[in-house]
Design brief:
Layout (H helix, E strand, L loop, with lengths): L1 H15 L19 H19 L1 H8 L15 E3 L5 E3 L10 H4 L2 E3 L4 H13 L5 H10 L2 E3 L2 H11 L1 H7 L23 E17 L2 E14 L5 E6 L4 H15 L4 E4 L3 H9 L19 E4 L9 H20 L7 H16 L18 H6 L14 H30 L18 E4 L11 E9 L5 E10 L2 E8 L3 E5 L4
Helix pairs in contact: 1-2, 5-6, 5-7, 9-10, 11-12
């Protein structure tokens, strides 16, 4: 419509120079409001110009009443020229009781920019719906665009508003596993942790009944052996989490690497313990242990799948235990017992599919390495006299550990090779791209728009997280987000 208004105004300016008795002459009449008749003439002028530029040979043949060339793209359409000199489809619907636009649509070449303008206009008319509705509105208006399906799909794909309404979140090829998941090391040397819960427990009796409080659980998982350790905490505070961390280190020994998401309690514990997650040396409580704390990007729980998956397993096991203990009042002591049973069941789980080969009766479980027992439900058989206790037990322990790591390398490690999803390389997000930030608490129409100011490449040169700048109510904010929370609206010009 802007093109039609501009052409109509230019035609009025041109016509004013031919008039002798005219008050508004020349460019003074350019800003005069266009009438519907002027807009209709301007639209016909634009279409006639487009057709004569593209279909010169077809115009010449039709006017000379000659057949079209065999290589002409309009040969199957049987084109005709109407009284306005416009090229229309002839077809076989002339006797039908239809309007002129329905029987003889105007032919528009798909390679011309005017075709894109028409598609954009009628795409907005149908409120940014899909190709089917947009193409239907275009045809109902009396336009026949050659190869319209591909062109309409291309225009809709580039439409920023459509991307804002229905654009998919960005994905990238699955990254390689971290080295601490692929290296044999003592249990709980590299640990992933997270908090889950809460559960209501009875803390004390009162005259009116009982006082209840909540409990949460911290799940520590070994990145290499996939063993699990669970500690209860009384609150989601930094002090409670530090106490759980101290109990874990006292039982399982110090860790070299801690991995977690960016929960406020984890960040608070890191600050209070003065842990520098960028340096291997600790300055306070863990100074002599040489532990490094690595945080995932905000809003990127999928990057912690090694422990997020186990939280779901722990929840399902605990639900099964609580379902049987219907008459048991849940106290802190009872919940601690249940968590110990959950931990035992999870550590006894097979790491690889159970083999039907009779030559491989042993299961590869984390409990094999932690407890040195092949069965966690019964004690090991045999007589352990004092003379043999120290002479032979260390050989048995070493043999079981060697067997575990040998089976771990041959069976478990190979199962991590395959990428089960995110298998294709995708274009990287670039600095300067305009993106939409996902917000699970808001409707999609209320998501913030921002500009990518910094990207972070992994070792394989793939961008999986970026820093986005947004402006809302005059306030400029920077957000670190994974690409799974970004919708690309407008890529930066190359």
């Amino acid at each position: 419509m802007r093109l039609c208004h501009t052409v109509a105004s230019l035609k009025r300016v041109t016509a004013s120079f031919k008039k002798t008795n005219s008050e508004s002459k020349g460019w003074k009449c350019f800003s005069v409001t266009n009438t519907p008749n002027e807009l209709e003439k301007a639209a016909k002028f634009i279409i006639h110009t487009v057709q004569t530029e593209t279909f010169k040979e077809e115009y010449r043949c039709i006017k000379a009443n000659k057949p079209l060339p065999n290589l002409s793209c309009l040969k199957k359409l049987n084109p005709i020229i109407d009284e306005d000199g416009l090229l229309r489809i002839g077809g076989r619907l002339a006797p039908a009781n239809l309007t002129k636009e329905e029987k003889h649509p105007l032919i528009i070449p798909n390679a011309h920019h005017v075709a894109v303008l028409l598609i954009r206009y009628y795409h907005e008319k149908v409120a940014h719906q899909g190709r089917h509705l947009s193409e239907g509105a275009l045809r109902a208006a009396g336009f026949w665009i050659k190869g319209s399906k591909r062109l309409v799909s291309s225009v809709i794909h580039k439409c920023v508003l459509c991307r804002k309404l229905r654009g998919q979140l960005q994905t990238q090829k699955m990254a390689d596993l971290p080295i601490d998941r692929l290296t044999p090391m003592p249990p709980f040397t590299s640990v992933g942790l997270d908090v889950f819960g809460p559960w209501s427990v009875i803390t004390r009796r009162t005259r009116g009944g009982s006082a209840d409080s909540k409990r949460w659980a911290v799940l520590f998982t070994c990145m290499s052996t996939r063993a699990v350790h669970i500690e209860l905490i009384e609150s989601m505070s930094t002090s409670s989490f530090i106490n759980a961390l101290r109990r874990f280190f006292s039982i399982r020994g110090p860790a070299q690497i801690l991995r977690s998401d960016r929960g406020t309690n984890f960040v608070g514990a890191c600050n209070e313990l003065k842990i520098d997650h960028k340096d291997t040396e600790l300055t306070s409580y863990l100074q002599e242990k040489g532990c490094t704390w690595l945080f995932n990007s905000p809003h990127s729980s999928h990057m912690g799948g090694a422990w997020e998956r186990l939280i779901g397993v722990a929840r399902r096991i605990l639900d099964g235990i609580l379902l049987k203990a219907t008459n048991v009042q849940l106290t802190h002591e009872v919940l601690s017992t249940f968590m110990a049973e959950v931990m035992a069941i999870m550590n006894a789980r097979p790491l690889v599919p159970v083999s039907t080969d009779p030559d491989k009766p042993n299961l590869l479980t984390p409990a094999t390495l932690l407890t040195q027992k092949t069965n966690t439900l019964t004690a090991p058989t045999g007589n352990f006299a004092p003379p043999d206790l120290y002479a032979k037990q260390w050989k048995q322990v070493q043999c079981m550990a060697d067997t575990f790591w040998k089976q771990w390398r041959s069976e478990y490690l190979s199962s991590l090779q395959q990428r089960r999803k995110w298998t294709d390389d995708k274009p990287n997000i670039k600095t300067g791209d305009i993106v939409l930030l996902k917000d699970v608490l808001a409707h999609r129409n209320d998501w913030c728009m921002g500009r990518v100011v910094k990207t972070f490449e992994s070792k394989d040169n793939k961008v999986r997280k970026a820093e986005v700048k947004t402006v809302k109510d005059g306030n400029v904010k920077l957000f670190m987000r994974p690409i799974s929370d970004l919708v690309l609206l407008l890529p930066v010009e190359k």
